[in-house]
Design a protein that fits this description.
With 213 residues, this protein is α+β, with helices and mostly antiparallel strands. The chain has 8 helices and 5 strands. Helix content is 61%, strand content 16%. The longest helix is centred in the N-terminal third of the chain and has 32 residues.
Length: 213
């Protein structure tokens, strides 16, 4: 029985392994270069607002049951308020609160696309999120939208709760996300290795079976 040594293994299988590794590295490089070329960073600024009726004031004339009903009604209206926050009318009003230079860069449609309103069950707090390619722009747009909601909601939805603006968004609490991620290198390595294996399999098949009858 012949001894199996590393040298013997390399002589027998070294070339196929090398081919697979070369294609794997090339695949990782190609995918990595493509990922860098398409890399982009987005910034998301968040500001919370509260939409509710002034319960303490209502309590002077209404019973406890009626007060609970008002809170419940405000809760039920939150999905409608969310739709209004993401509406073009609010975006147009928000744009009025931007500087002249910002207005040149962002139309009302751009603002509408940038804004995303988040609500939770049993909560009167709405999170307004603005996502753009600029940290400063995201902050200004979300703050302008919050202000626009306070101005426009009573007109667009008569009888709605009062809008209270919570802490302003700042550049210090903006979230950023860069895509695509470095996972592209891993995907490229795997695809390259797979291609190398396929090529070696084809070569092996041709050599061993191609000339047989």
């Amino acid at each position: 029985m012949n001894n199996i040594t590393l040298n013997n293994l390399m002589k027998k299988h070294g070339k196929p392994v090398l081919v697979v590794l070369i294609f794997a590295v090339l695949g990782a490089l190609v995918m990595g270069i493509n990922a860098k070329r398409k890399k982009s960073t987005t910034y998301t600024a968040t500001r919370q607002i509260v939409i509710s009726h002034n319960i303490p004031q209502e309590m002077r004339t209404l019973s406890s049951g009626a007060n609970i009903s008002i809170v419940s009604e405000d809760n039920n209206m939150m999905p409608t308020y969310k739709d209004i926050a993401e509406n073009g009318t609010v975006a147009q009003q928000a744009r009025k609160h931007l500087s002249r230079s910002m207005k040149k860069k962002y139309s009302a449609d751009d603002i509408k696309s940038a804004i995303d309103a988040k609500i939770s069950q049993q909560s009167l707090v709405m999170e307004l999120k603005a996502k753009t390619s600029s940290k400063d722009a995201s902050v200004k747009i979300v703050n302008a939208t919050a202000r626009a909601m306070k101005e426009e909601l009573p007109r667009l939805q008569p009888g709605s709760g009062r809008v209270t603006l919570l802490q302003k968004a700042t550049v210090n609490n903006v979230d950023s996300k860069t895509t695509p991620s470095t996972k592209k290198y891993v995907v490229g390595f795997a695809l390259g290795a797979l291609l190398g294996l396929i090529i070696e399999f084809v070569i092996f098949t041709v050599k061993n079976f191609g000339h047989k009858e």
